[in-house]
Write a structure and sequence with these properties.
Elements: E1 2-4, E2 7-10, H1 14-24, E3 30-34, H2 38-42, E4 50-53, H3 55-63, E5 76-78, E6 80-85, E7 97-100, E8 110-114, H4 115-127, E9 132-136, E10 140-145, E11 150-154, E12 159-162, E13 164-167, H5 174-178, E14 183-198, E15 206-212, E16 215-221, E17 231-238, H6 240-248, H7 251-261, E18 270-271, E19 276-285, E20 289-290, E21 293-295, E22 301-302, H8 310-327, H9 335-363, H10 368-382, H11 385-396
Parallel strand pairs: 1-12, 2-3, 2-13, 3-9, 6-15, 13-21
Antiparallel strand pairs: 4-8, 5-8, 6-7, 10-11, 11-12, 14-17, 14-18, 14-19, 15-16, 16-17, 19-22, 20-21
Helix pairs in contact: 1-4, 1-8, 8-9
């Protein structure tokens, strides 16, 4: 059996669902294929990740009917971002690199939203679009492209034909690999643990990250009705063996260990969620397109979480692709359309990817001279007003990079 669509998307994560929504609103018939069951796509489980949305990403979600589906009480405005280096975190921000919204602005720097709630809201919006068909519980076994169409073989033996296949199947994309597109993969040899912690001292809307010897710690403010200001998302980067040992601790021992690691700066910490872990690898595809195939989301660029911009770049990537399809001559998979998408998306992501990997490598290197250098670097950066203005402008820009 062969089914025909204008465009097929492999992967029903945030980038894939956002792209389907963008395309459907432009009149294209879209199939979204994902191996997860429909129930898991409709109600994703908590995965520990808090997404830092820029103003541009929030505006996109608003324009496309997604933002209002996220419970307002679960959105945490980000007022200040504070970055430190050394094993003695500052309690007053001295010696730290600080980013704040301009004094004349009532806006926050950005907005922290749980990843599973964004995915739920996107799925709800997509489900209301008659032009979108979700093929849940199905995987793409093989795909090919020729001058006229893309062909997909699903694991139930059925075939799908479309003018374009969009791979949004994650940073270890099987479609990317099967179609012969290589990637720069940087394995940092670390793992990340994310979980929610309650604490007696208020976080005051500050996202705090510091680079300690042998570990990187972030505390991100989490919205909470029960006790506003006293719940944070812990993002802890360690060697895999240490992550495994931490995950095996009972709650009381884990609370004590995290309180020690965070230097009690928000008081005694208490675990309030599951402990989720992820490998720390970044990915940059050698190409973002080939015949009748485009890569978006982490399949194209899998960012280091240090900048918290993976979701924002994924959203921007699908936006660029849809803009180029709209500019084209009625063929979404035309070579000139895909080449234009690749040029724009590479220009928007390559410098940030390289800079982020460089910073992450420097700030996780524990040699004595490097420790002093990176601490001095933060002090210097904090005094560079143009740099801080540029970063703040990126976060608060409603147009987004093009």
């Amino acid at each position: 059996m062969t089914q025909t669509y204008d465009i097929a998307i492999a992967g029903a994560g945030p980038a894939g669902l956002a792209c389907a929504l963008s395309l459907a609103k432009r009149g294209w018939r879209v199939a979204v294929i994902d191996p997860a069951p429909r129930s898991a796509l409709a109600a994703p489980s908590f995965d520990g990740r808090e997404i830092a949305l820029t103003h541009h990403s929030r505006d996109w979600l608003e324009r496309n009917g997604v933002w209002d589906r996220i419970p307002a009480q679960c959105i945490s405005p980000l007022k200040t971002a504070q970055i430190e280096s050394g094993d003695e975190p500052s309690s007053n921000g001295s010696g730290a690199l600080l980013f704040t919204a301009p004094p004349d602005s009532a806006d926050a720097l950005g907005f922290l939203v749980p990843n599973h709630l964004i995915r739920t809201a996107l799925h709800e919006a997509v489900s209301e679009q008659s032009a979108i068909t979700i093929l849940a519980g199905q995987g793409v076994v093989a795909s090919s492209g020729n001058r006229d169409k893309a062909v997909l073989l699903l694991d139930d033996g059925s075939l799908i034909e479309a003018s374009l296949l969009i791979a949004a199947d994650g940073r270890f994309s099987r479609i990317r690999q099967a179609r012969g597109i290589g990637a720069i993969i940087h394995d940092f040899g670390k793992q990340i643990m994310v979980c929610r912690m309650r604490h007696p001292e208020p976080h005051q809307g500050v996202a705090l990250q510091w680079f300690d010897k042998g570990q990187t710690i972030a505390l991100l403010p989490v919205a909470d009705d029960d006790q506003p200001g006293h719940l944070s998302s812990l993002v802890l980067t360690l060697d895999p063996a240490n992550i495994a040992a931490l995950k095996a601790l009972d709650k009381a021992a884990f609370d004590r260990d995290v309180t020690r690691r965070t230097q009690s700066r928000l008081g005694p910490m208490s675990l309030e969620s599951a402990r989720c872990t992820y490998p720390l690898k970044t990915v940059f595809a050698h190409r973002f397109q080939t015949t009748r195939l485009a890569l978006i989301g982490d399949a194209a660029v899998g960012m280091h979480p240090i900048t918290a911009h993976g979701f924002n770049l994924g959203l921007k990537g699908q936006e660029i692709l849809c803009e180029e399809i709209e500019r084209g001559d009625a063929d979404p998979g035309a070579p000139e359309v895909l080449r234009a998408f690749e040029r724009r998306h590479r220009r928007a992501t390559a410098p940030l990817f390289a800079a982020t990997n460089g910073i992450a490598s420097l700030y996780t290197h524990d040699a004595g001279p490097v420790l002093a250098l990176r601490k001095a670097g933060l002090l210097l950066a904090d005094r560079m007003t143009p740099l801080k203005t540029l970063v703040t402008g990126f976060l608060m820009d409603r147009k987004g990079a093009s």
